[in-house]
Specification:
alpha/beta, D-tyrosyl-trna(Tyr) Deacylase, Chain: A, 6-stranded mixed beta sheet, two-stranded antiparallel ribbon, 2 helices, about 20% helix, about 40% strand, globular
Length: about 150
Amino acid sequence: MRVVVQRVSQASVCIEGKTHGIIERGMMVLLGIEHEDDQSDADWLIQKLIGLRIFSDEEEKMNCSIRDVEGRFLVVSQFTLHASTKKGNRPSYMRAARPEKAIPLYNYFIRELSVQYGDKIESGVFGADMKVSLTNDGPVTILMDSKNRE
């Protein structure tokens, strides 16, 4: 699994002109699932996200986790995170999981994040045409991949 995490002061996702999820201070998480992923990848990422210290303390140092600042999560599926641009100009998405595998893992990720963190989770809809809006705070943007745990 691959995520792009952005520290935000606000973020929202709209589907067919209607707001589906909206948060204020927290993390915007774009989640890409590849065909080799399983629940252990989701579990590792969830623990990293909850513990990630990317919020400022009273001295303006990034020492606080999302829990410390009582922030919220907005999770949106993003298969294009597994794009390969190695050949030509048209990206290949061969590594992205097919919906029959990706949907259950996406739902597991959201459910487990909610179990671990609480009711402060908003999400998009897998496969929907979504309009995402956010104000990146910092800006702070971090890439994480469960297959490359650096």
